[in-house]
Amino acid sequence: MATSWNGLSFVLAEESYMTLIAVLAVTVLWLLWSVSSYFRCRNRLPLPPGNFGFPFLGQTVEFISALRTDGMRQWVQKQVDKHGPLFRYRFIGYPVVMMDHPEGNKFVFQNEGRSNHMFMPSHMATLLGPQSLAVQTGERHKLVRRYLNKFFDRGAMIRYINGVNRNAIRHFTNHWQGKEQLVALDVIDLYTSPSICNLVLSLEEGPLLDKFLEEFHAWAGGFFSLPITLPGFQYYKALKARGVILKMLEELMQQRRQKIAENRLPEALETDILNSLLTVPDDDGNLLQDSFIKDNLLLLLITGFDTSSTTLALTIFNIAKHPHVYEQILQEHRLILEEKLRAGKDPNMWTMEDISAMKYTWGVIQETLRLHPLLIGSYRKTVTDLEYKGYHIPKGWLLKWNVLYSHYNPKYFKDPLKFDPSRWETRPPPFTYLAFGGGSHSCIGYEFAKMSMLIFIHHLVQNYSWSLVNPHYDGPFIRDPFPRPPDRFLISVKKLTTS
């Protein structure tokens, strides 16, 4: 019995000894870590100035409120006055650094794919879909963009240009002729929507297109709303609209596949983007998955729905406020037609050289987007700790490049609140004008949007004059998600008499 007790005592003593050693080891390691952390913190650069506000939400509510009332420039300026041109805030739980201009924009774009990659808040990514080009990063993004780029290169524009021109002629005949007043934003939707729908789906005006329009507006409204998935909230409506649109696309895909299988596809449908997505394999020789096709059809369609129509409506708004701009545009387009006639060319057949000749008109559109940018910036996520301008930006934080500093900065744009298309006779400094985004995620449909908008303006100024019904309204605009006045650009129109 004594032997057993002594053995037990020895075992307990040994366990106590080992426990003591373990405690001492943990204590020493903790002290070493604490000392190391202390010196790391002493040596680490400070975080960018600013504050994160309330837990999780941070400045989300005031940010979205400023965005929807077109008050982002004022909100950013308030933060700049308080913290300087580089500051931090919190948006839907994410720590964000608002980058300065233009150096911050340059830093983001030039380091994309190395120290940062494309990021979209999860509620926005959900609306776009997991296969959308807009949410891809790295090599996957390069592969998808390379596949889709062939639909928007110069060769593609040459194929599309006269179809867009015919659509413009039909649009003005059907929707402007005989009208005295028009809601510009709504009527221009009837031009941009058939243009992109015809390009992507060979879809003409009619009940199906009207349904697309209705659901697309509901879907687009969810991007800058609080991500609350309860009935009655905008984001919930947007999710429901996405589901309806995907179902419509699925039905169109099934109908198209059936026509292809039965060898009864009309020639007109052979050249649209849907046909290519269904029949042209990827780089590995595989046909594309339906989920990929639907997500990217959705993306391609939205690039031509609200963005181009809002830009054109804003351009009409600015031209109406500056009659001399109308006269200069009209003169430019008359000269283009005169030169075509002198060269013995058909004035109704357009070339990319004609589009390139519309320099002043394009300057008017650029100036419109400088003053009223549709996209004020987007996010990149850091994949490593960064140092920038004496500040430490931790891994996992978001960087927000933006246009609000530079577009209104007199250093880059003299008298920045003045509408002055002549400033576009010279190019602005790099990374100061980013109306179509920047880096590898710049707008993939840029060339198509430019072409279709210039053709619209050509037919407009050749055939109509117009004025604003509410000429003294200067804001604030509403953003849902793009800027517009409450009257949605209500105009009085007058048909020009031919001489």
From TrEMBL:
Entry binding sites for heme: 443
Keyword Transport (UniProt): no
Superkingdom, taxonomy of origin: Eukaryota
Molecular function per GO: metal ion binding; monooxygenase activity
InterPro entries: Cyt_P450, Cyt_P450_CS, Cyt_P450_E_grp-I, Cyt_P450_sf
Segments passing through the bilayer: 20-39
Necessary cofactors: heme
Keywords: Heme, Iron, Membrane, Metal-binding, Monooxygenase, Oxidoreductase, Transmembrane, Transmembrane helix
Family as reported in the entry's similarity comment: Belongs to the cytochrome P450 family.
Protein name, per record: Cytochrome P450
Organism of derivation: Riccia sorocarpa
Lineage, opening ranks: Eukaryota, Viridiplantae, Streptophyta, Embryophyta, Marchantiophyta
